[in-house]
UniProtKB/TrEMBL annotation:
Residues 92-165 form a coiled coil. Keywords: Coiled coil, Membrane, Signal, Transmembrane, Transmembrane helix. Residues 20-86 form the SH3b domain. It is found in: Membrane. The chain crosses the membrane at residues 170-193. The keyword DNA damage does not apply. InterPro entries: SH3-like_bac-type, SH3_dom_pro. It is a single-pass membrane protein. It comes from Oceanimonas smirnovii. This is TIGR04211 family SH3 domain-containing protein.
Length: 204
């Protein structure tokens, strides 16, 4: 008995939850709220298209449904004008917020992209300046190298000429010394002989 009672209570709770489900008024209609479950009953007001309402009950004969709107009014409207999916009007604020967030993200991405491009352009300009400086330094070094090569060739030529002149000088000096030595060697033996002959002649 207790089990049946518990099952009955659970069933009633489930039915009440099902009856109180959330519904949305279609976006493309203009619906009236009636006091009873047909259009023959007094009109209580209108329901905005896309409005979120609370589903309470359904009339099986007229297909009208009892609802509770956002203003707290309870009434009946044609069930054909309700849908279970969230209406576009209800989703519009969320979509607008998402669109705004996406636009901000795109703006941030554009800013980062622009900054990246600017950084790369600055880097290329600095590298171009450094390359120009290096080319100028290389040209200066090349010019200095050519001057040093020319000066080295001149000095080498001077050293060769100097060495050749020194060899000639040594050769000439050596010849002179040899000539003088030969002359002295030729003359010296003759000088004593002449003195002896003069002494011999005086004594006689």
């Amino acid at each position: 008995m207790k089990a049946k009672l518990l099952l009955l209570l659970c069933s009633l709770f489930w039915v009440s939850q099902a009856n109180a489900a959330t519904r949305y008024v279609s976006d493309d209609v203009y619906a009236f709220l009636h006091a009873g479950p047909s259009n023959k009953y007094r009109i209580l007001g209108s329901i905005n298209a896309g409005e979120k309402i609370e589903f309470l009950d359904r009339d099986a004969n007229t297909k009208y449904v009892q609802i509770k709107d956002a203003e707290g009014r309870t009434g009946w409207m044609d069930g054909r004008f309700l849908q279970t999916e969230e209406s576009f009007r209800s989703r519009l604020p969320v979509l607008e917020a998402e669109l705004k967030e996406t636009q901000q993200q795109l703006a941030t991405v554009d800013e980062r992209h622009a900054q990246d491009v600017a950084d790369k352009v600055n880097l290329i300009e600095r590298q171009q300046q450094e390359l120009t400086t290096l080319k100028a330094e290389l040209s200066e070094i090349s010019s200095s190298h050519e001057q040093l090569t020319t000066e080295n060739a001149r000095l080498t030529s001077l050293m060769d000429d100097k060495e050749h002149q020194m060899r000639l000088d040594w050769l000439v000096h050596g010849g002179i010394v040899a000539g003088i030595g030969a002359l002295v060697g030729f003359i010296l033996p003759m000088i004593p002989l002449r003195r002896r002959k003069r002494q011999d002649r005086w004594m006689n």
